[in-house]
Structures are given as structure tokens and as C-alpha cells.
Write a structure and sequence with these properties.
By secondary structure, the chain is mainly alpha-helical. About 80% of the residues lie in helices and about 0% in strands.
Length: about 550
């Protein structure tokens, strides 16, 4: 057998690159919903407070949001294959640490390490696809596959957790990530095509440090403000540090010869639109999932597997709708596809404001399916537009920035909507307790407990013969808070739709903004993606 027959053909390498990219994003997103639905079991097993429990998820999301752009730069400079492999290793190592965790602090460490690995995987997987498939018309289909892999991870997570929690310890929810990541590392080593940004792109340490500090401080401040008080000293200090670091980041990027995030990309209306849509829509969407999981668990008293099966409807519907979205991008204007998806999401969220304790599964199901269809119409064109709106050699930067905005929104969603839910529920609880016949010192003690430890803290109280009345009042209070959150999430989706309609309507901006005045211009590089951006521009109008 000669070298010609044994060599891996370019088409085979491209296929392997796309498969590895999809597997990478699957590994990155799998812990999000798997852990989210397992939090009650973790709390019981480790005897944690509500505040400690909230940081299980946040310990994963924070490093993911803070280091995505840094990982994109490392991939551009040192090679995306290396960063991809490092991300898989961190995901496997983080899952292994969490699997062996004996206390909440060790679990936080495992989650943080896995979040760092996910931060490395998200921008590199998209940049690898962009390099392997430079033609935008063809690339849209493969970015659609990438988006479907992301949604598939969100879909199977609750089901996997539900099955495991019904039969085994909560620790085993982390087991699947370890072999998946290690097998992907082994397969990618000989098959994955490496790539990096040409033309002397280099590390931007001032930008990387200030961006990480800004994102970490701002998200931490919002999370702790929601859990405690926005007037607390640590919260004010964190938010102030975040603002200062953000200003320092902008100054550093303007002065840098090779910025981590070339601010000129925001001259592209297409890129700016996708950044805003990613931030706003994921803030509302992930916050909605957080609120809905509370509804299934605390109001409808469903088990983990039952709740997971219901939540499964959203990503499955998104996968079904998103599969043709990538193929239709060169036929249907992207702004109308994205706007239609966001309007469907808003309509579904508003339709769920009339849910109550006894709402049937069928009545909830159609609303969740509509929400999923809207999500599927948004995810693929939003991601593809962000990558195509900048020069080809800045694909890593664009994908990293778009994912960073998405993750910041996802991190803020549960915190922001959680605050709204808590405030509304606590305000309405005394009235619902009175309606249920629970008054006097017992009612005051219940309200004080909820204010201190959240709605779930009531489970630890000795309620005696009034338990059913109290839990009914708690459920009604949570419904009041959920309805407020649904309205806010719907408004956020409408705002995102308005951003898409207004900012994606001018084809020339997608073609000339960052592509002509960004890093490519200052380094004298040709506009490698002009054809792609032009094709995209014609479809935006």
C-alpha cells in the first residue's frame, strides 16, 4: 500500500474536523442542564445552604464567560487544535474532580475547571469549522450542525441526570463527560486539521486580563446582589471593579496593535446585531429554564426525570427547526429568520403566563415546542452571521466574542430573573398565606425564612398540620414570580427581535465595517471574507 492510498484525503480531514467540532461543543454544553436539574439532590447530599448551592452552577458559567475570548486568541496564535485538545482535557479533569467531590468546595473546583475547558472549546470549534469550510453558503449548513450539537447536549442533559438520580448517586452525572472528552482527544489527535490566524496575530495580555476581570466582577456582582443585597459592600465593590475593568479593556483594545477584540468589528451592523441578540436572548432564555425548573419541581412536584422529559421538548424542537435553518440561510433573509424566531419565543413565553398548579402536560407541551422552534430559527443564523460579518482570518475572534456575549447573558439570566422571582414571590406570600388560613407568628416565621433562605428553605421547617396550606401558598407565590419572569423574558426577546430588524437591514454595513477598517486594514491584509460578507449582506435585507 503506497503513501497515496494511506494518506488522509482533504475531504476526510474536513469531515473529521466538523465531527470533532460538533463533539467538542456537545462536551462543553453537557454539564449545563445535567447539573442544573441535579441541584436539589446535591443540596441534600452535601447539606449545603442555598447560597452555596447557587455557586455550583455559577462556578461553571463564570470561567466560561470570562475566558472565552482569551481562548479564542490563544487558538488564533498557538493553533486551534492545541486549544481544542486542552479544552477537552480540562473538561475531563473537571468532571473527574466533581465526580470525586467530598464537599461543596471540591465540587466548585471541578465545575470551575470544566467551565475553563468549555471556554476553550466554544470559540475553537467554530473557528475550526470556519477554516475547514471557507465558503459561506456551504458553511451555514455545518454551523447548523454545530448549533444542533449544542442543543442536543442541552436536551439530553436532564434526561441523563433523571435516569442517574433515580438509580444512583448524584456524582455519576459527571461520569459521561470523562470518556467522551478523552475519546474525542484521542480521535482528534491524528485526524483534526489545525489552523491559526495568519498575519502576525499575537497575544494581548492587557486586553485578556481586563476582560476577564470585567466579566468576572460584573457577573459576580449581579449573582451576589441577587442572592444577598445590591447594597452589600462586596456587591458594590464587585460592580465598581467590573466597570473600571471594562473601561480599561476598551482603552487597552484601542491602543493594542493586535487586540483580543478589535472594537472595529462593531462597525459591522451584522456583528453588533448578533452580539446583542446573543446577550439579550440568552439572558431571557436561560433565566426562563431556571424559573421553569422551579415550577416543575416546587409547584407541580415532579421528579427529576419527569421534569427533564418536559424540558426536553424545547431543545428537540429547536433541533428539528434548526436543521433546515442552516440550509435556508442563502434563500431567506437572515434578519427575518432571526426576528421570526425571536417573535415565536416571545409569544410562547407570554402564552405560559397563564400556567397554574394543575396545568396539564399537553397544555404546556405546545408552548414549549413553539419556544423550541423559535430558538432553532435563531441559533444557527445568529452564529453564522457573526462569523461571516468579519474578515476570514478573524473568525476565531468573532466566534469567541459571540459566544462570550451568549455566556454572559446565560450567566446573568438566572441571577436577574431569580431576583425578580424572589422579590415578587416574597411580596405576594403573606397574602397567599392569609388566604390559606395561615396567619400570626407562623406566617411571620415562614416569610422570614423565605427572605433569608429562599422558597426551598421552608421544607426544613416544622409546619405541623398546616403543611399542605403552606406549600399551596408557596406554590401560588412562586407562580406570581414566574409570571413576572415570563413577561420580562418575553420583553427581552422582543427587544432582541427589534435589534435584528434594525441592525441587519443594511447590507453594506456587514460588508464594509470590520472587514475594511479592522485588523485586516491596519495590518495590510486582504479582506478574505468579502465574498462571504457580501453574500450575507444581500440576504439580510
Amino acid at each position: 500500500m503506497n503513501a497515496t492510498t494511506t494518506a488522509i484525503r482533504p475531504t476526510d480531514r474536513r469531515a473529521a474536523t466538523i465531527v470533532m467540532a460538533c463533539l467538542g461543543v456537545f462536551v462543553a454544553y453537557l454539564p449545563i442542564t445535567t447539573v442544573a436539574v441535579s441541584l436539589p439532590a446535591i443540596q441534600r447530599a452535601l447539606s449545603t445552604s442555598t447560597a452555596q448551592l447557587s455557586w455550583v452552577q455559577d462556578a461553571f458559567v463564570l470561567p466560561m464567560a470570562a475566558f472565552i475570548m482569551t481562548a479564542g486568541v490563544f487558538g488564533d496564535v498557538h493553533g486551534r487544535k492545541k486549544v481544542f485538545q486542552a479544552g477537552l482535557f480540562c473538561c475531563a479533569a473537571g468532571a473527574a474532580v466533581a465526580l470525586c467531590a467530598q464537599n461543596i468546595q471540591m465540587l466548585w473546583a471541578g465545575q470551575a475547571l470544566a467551565g475553563l475547558g468549555s471556554a476553550a472549546l466554544l470559540p475553537t470549534t467554530l473557528a475550526l469549522i470556519s477554516h475547514a469550510v471557507p465558503d459561506f453558503r456551504e458553511r451555514g449548513k455545518f454551523i447548523g450542525m454545530w448549533a444542533m450539537a449544542m442543543l442536543a447536549a442541552l436536551a439530553v442533559g436532564p434526561v441523563i441526570a433523571g435516569v442517574i438520580l433515580d438509580h444512583f448517586s448524584w456524582r455519576w452525572i459527571y461520569l459521561l463527560s470523562v470518556p467522551l472528552a478523552l475519546v474525542a482527544m484521542a480521535v482528534a489527535a491524528p485526524l483534526l486539521t489545525d489552523s491559526r490566524a495568519p498575519h502576525g496575530r499575537k497575544l494581548d495580555w492587557p486586553g485578556q486580563i481586563t476582560a476577564a476581570v470585567a466579566v468576572t466582577a460584573l457577573v459576580y456582582g449581579v449573582i451576589e446582589g441577587g442572592a444577598d443585597s445590591f447594597t452589600a459592600t462586596k456587591v458594590i465593590a464587585a460592580l465598581a471593579l467590573g466597570v473600571v475593568a471594562l473601561i480599561a479593556f476598551v482603552v487597552a483594545e484601542k491602543r493594542s496593535d493586535s487586540p483580543m477584540l478589535d472594537l472595529a468589528v462593531f462597525r459591522s451592523a451584522a456583528f453588533t446585531a448578533t452580539a446583542l441578540v446573543a446577550l439579550i436572548s440568552f439572558l431571557g432564555l436561560i433565566g426562563f429554564f431556571f424559573v421553569l425548573s422551579l415550577y416543575f419541581g416546587m409547584v407541580q412536584q415532579l421528579g427529576t426525570l419527569e421534569a427533564g422529559a418536559r424540558l426536553l421538548l424545547v431543545p428537540v424542537a429547536a433541533i428539528v427547526a434548526g436543521a433546515p435553518a442552516g440550509r435556508l440561510m442563502h434563500r431567506v433573509p437572515t434578519r427575518w429568520m432571526i426576528s421570526l424566531g425571536l417573535l415565536l419565543m416571545a409569544g410562547s413565553l407570554l402564552a405560559m403566563t397563564n400556567l397554574d398548579t394543575d396545568t396539564s402536560y399537553g397544555s404546556i407541551a405546545w408552548r414549549l415546542i413553539v419556544l423550541g422552534v423559535g430558538l432553532g430559527l435563531v441559533t444557527t443564523p445568529m452564529t453564522a452571521t457573526a462569523v461571516a460579518a468579519v474578515p476570514h482570518h478573524l473568525a476565531g475572534m468573532a466566534s469567541a466574542a459571540n459566544n462570550a456575549f451568549r455566556q454572559v447573558g446565560g450567566a446573568l439570566g438566572p441571577a436577574v430573573l431569580g431576583v425578580l422571582l424572589s422579590i415578587r414571590a416574597v411580596d405576594s406570600l403573606p397574602g397567599h398565606l392569609a388566604d390559606a388560613g395561615v396567619t400570626g407568628t407562623q406566617a411571620q416565621a415562614i416569610v422570614a425564612t423565605v427572605k433569608e433562605g429562599g422558597l426551598g428553605a421552608v421544607a426544613g421547617m416544622n409546619l405541623g398540620s398546616t403543611a399542605n396550606q403552606v406549600y399551596g401558598a408557596l406554590g401560588d407565590s412562586l407562580l406570581d414570580g414566574m409570571r413576572l419572569c415570563l413577561i420580562v423574558a418575553a420583553i427581552l426577546a422582543l427587544i432582541a427581535a427589534a435589534c435584528a430588524v434594525v441592525l441587519l437591514r443594511h447590507p453594506k454595513q456587514a460588508r464594509t465595517g470590520a472587514a475594511r477598517s479592522g485588523s485586516a486594514a491596519q495590518h495590510g491584509h486582504p479582506d478574505a471574507s468579502a465574498g462571504n460578507a457580501q453574500a450575507l449582506g444581500h440576504r439580510q435585507g
